[in-house]
Design a protein that fits this description.
Elements lengths: L6 E6 L5 E6 L4 E5 L5 E5 L11 E7 L5 E9 L4 E9 L5 E7 L8
Antiparallel strand pairs: 1-2, 2-3, 3-4, 5-6, 6-7, 7-8
Length: 107
């Protein structure tokens, strides 16, 4: 397992042992910080409930248990923006917040 497209963003966990990435393949991944091996892939409902969302930015919580993910989708007719809160251990989206306008470019 590994990245199948260019990486859009990278964020290190608070303890520095892992890091998370989001790529142009719309998959979030957790990597081992020392070996570089991919530990988990978050697909489907893990990216703000829909794999078609692009994750533009990521941020770990201070305790490292969740990752906030700024997401965007443009299907031509409708632009949708969300912040998804992902459980690091399961990859599940535990909360999704709709954003009315603009982009979430930093968290």
């Amino acid at each position: 397992r590994g990245a199948t497209a260019p990486i859009r963003c990278v964020v290190f966990s608070p303890d520095g042992h892992t890091f998370a990435t989001s790529g142009y393949d719309n998959i979030n991944r957790i990597w081992h910080g020392f070996s570089g091996s991919c530990l988990k892939e978050f697909r489907g409902n893990s990216v703000a409930e829909d794999h078609t969302f692009e994750a533009r930015c990521l941020a770990y919580s201070p305790d490292g248990t969740v990752i906030a993910c700024g997401c965007y989708r443009d299907n031509g007719a409708v632009r949708t923006r969300k912040v998804g809160i992902l459980d690091v251990s399961t990859g599940e989206c535990v909360r999704s917040i709709d954003i009315a306008e603009g982009f979430v470019s930093h968290l």
